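Morning run. Coffee first, then this:
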Amino acid sequence: MFLPGEWSLRVALAALVIFSGGLIALAYGDSLRASRLRQHRLPVPEDRDLGRPTDAN
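And here it is:
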């Protein structure tokens, strides 16, 4: 909103930021959740597809 330029450029930039943030959340969400659970010494659930915790190697 406060950027100089046309409104279409501002809307496109906002859409790009929201879209890329969503992709990052989808890609790393499980791993971040598992690390937060470990940080607070809570059990990390196993991934049903892998048969192990999400971020384990």
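The mean pLDDT is 84. Good start to the day.
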